[in-house]
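Minutes, structural biology subgroup

Action item carried over from last meeting: produce the structure token record for Exostosin-like 1 (Calidris pygmaea). EB confirmed the sequence was re-checked against the source entry. Recorded below for completeness.
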Amino acid sequence: MQTRKKYIFLTFLASWLLLFFFGGDQLRRLAFFSGRKAEARRNWPHWTDRSLLKSFAAPEELQSDGDPSLPSPRERRAARLSVYKNSRCRMETCFDFSRCEKNGFKVFTYPQERDQPLSESYSKILTSIERSRYYTPNPEEACLFILSIDTLDRDHLSGQYVRNVDEKIRGFPLWNGGRNHLIFNLYSGTWPNYTEDLGFDIGQAILAKASFYTENFRPGFDISIPLFSKDHPQRGGERGWLSQDSIPPKKKYLLVFKGKRYLTGIGSGTRNALHHIHNGKDIVSLTTCKHGKDWEKHKDTRCDKDNVDYEKFDYQELLHNSTFCIVPRGRRLGSFRFLEALQAACIPVLLSDGWELPFAEAIDWGKAAVVGNERLLLQIPSAVRCIHPERVLAFQQQTQFLWDAYFSSVDKIVHTTLEIIKDRLLPHRSRSRFLWNTLPGGLLALPDFSTHLGDFPFYYLQHGSSPSEKFTAFIRATSSAGSLSQSILRLIQAVSGSQYCAQILVLWSCEKPLPPRGTWPQTTVPLTIVQGRGKLSDRFFPYAAIQTDAVLSLDEHTSLSTSEVDFAFVVWRSFPERIVGFPSRSHFWDPEQRRWGYTSKWTNELSIVLTAAAFYHRYYHSLFTEYLPAGLRELVDGLAACEDILMNVLVAAVTKLPPIKVTQRKQHKESLPQQVKGTAGAAGGRRFSQQQDCLNQLVDWFGYMPLVSSQLRLDPVLFKDQVSVLRKKYPRLEKP
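Output recorded by EB:
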């Protein structure tokens, strides 16, 4: 028993000795771990301790997180809630679709009050809407409403700030809490925080706003628009600095900026740091402190030198000669230089964190701009140097397309806004992002015509397809005689003999009744008669009977052979986006009259091909009827031969290309009505006077001259060559 106790005692003692020798160190570490950790933390140098760790900024600057003038998240949230009380609005919840079902997408602008002044920019916006094809003067037909109160400038320190907006809009019987309303705004908030406070409750209205914060933006409901100046043109606008499909010369500078530097307040951080990337060679960053009333109070040690360097460079010259342009935020997120850079084909490098880019719902900015981060400014030079030259060229060409398609005038900015809203109403018939980001752009690609790329004349190459191999002949008959003229009978026979003709449509625009069916000629293709309304614009109506891509537009007195028709159609299939035809005209600038002139003289240049004998794509019928406002079609109906000019102007505005003239056996002669043949000289002079008036009125409406001159005429191979006719494909073209 004693021996057993002895063995138990020795075993217990040995266990403690082993635990002490092999586990004691771990126990000691466990016991003193927290103490040593705290000691180690106490002994490490503090991050603001100047004696142990040098700092590039003062300790008091490091202790504050960001610009002290910036509003805190709580302040931003409070400001947001004060403006966007319906922050969860979507088209499905805050828009009444039923108002758009009966009359389609119509827009009504409130009548302007006499004692309510409007800024120049807001007047342009209202004018753009009233000039659009969507405008209606009847509020009962309207799907969307626009206030007559100027809401563009909501900085209460501005002279254009309108007070008591809440009280005014509540008195409008159509307001309905803002439902189905669109509000435009360029400036919101004021010094020092420039929050997005508009000073009134927008309710359930859609907000089209510049400098939109992404955290306040309601996706699929609001629209971000660009900031534009009061001098931005109403329509037309200046063209971009880079010609279409051209390669720009190598630029002197890689990256430039010239602008104000804010010494204090919101937006000062980014602009104050721009001098770090300036190298004086291919990267030029110029800032000036010399702006505002009390700039000298806040000026720093760099101001005097910066102001001197700033005056050494011309801003427009820098834009012309740089590949990339820095577009930093100002007091607000957007700035005028964004549109200036686009127009100059200077690729924008955006430094404006949180900015919802203009029309980003439709536009792919990744193909036209470099979106940087304000906190990573020093990485911008190396980032832009890494972009391949081919991609740089693609960026530059895309800036020119976007500028011309959506931003060059107030009309285009407003119409783009309306088209985006319209697309939301019928998502299944809306434009794809491809249509928005490819020539000719979303405004000129009507989804009501088709949503299939192959149905448009612009996308055959991208789609890998070709136009249909048949055409529809569309003959306009205007003879005052009750019977069919010999000219139209010969024309029907010549056209029906073409191997490419699918059908013939005759638009009967005569006062006399239709001739009996038995008097019409027998043809190998279907012949259909369409009763017109007596208007000149009827010839460009999108008739459902036209199913082929190509339309051969003809007047009844046109004289063409089958060979001429065949050759012209073969040419058109290579240029389906253009007008291809026979009789041509040209325009010119008359410096004495200070207006545009129109001539039928045979010269080396042409800019118009008459639709009395021309091929074009059937899509232009839809564009003519649905895209152009009713006022232009009424102009066409009131002036002789104005429909020819308008169709050519429209196609040139869409394609930026001239028409194509093809070989013609006989010179085309414009026919005159029977009653004026005795006074042909006077009638011809009056006709040309009306055509010139038409041309100048169209230029005024478009805001520029869309027509493009050309010296090109296409003839068949071996045309007029001294070789056997057996070797020529179209020998009949040379016969008198």
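Discussion: The first helix runs from residue 2 to 43.
Next step: EB to file the record with the rest of the batch.
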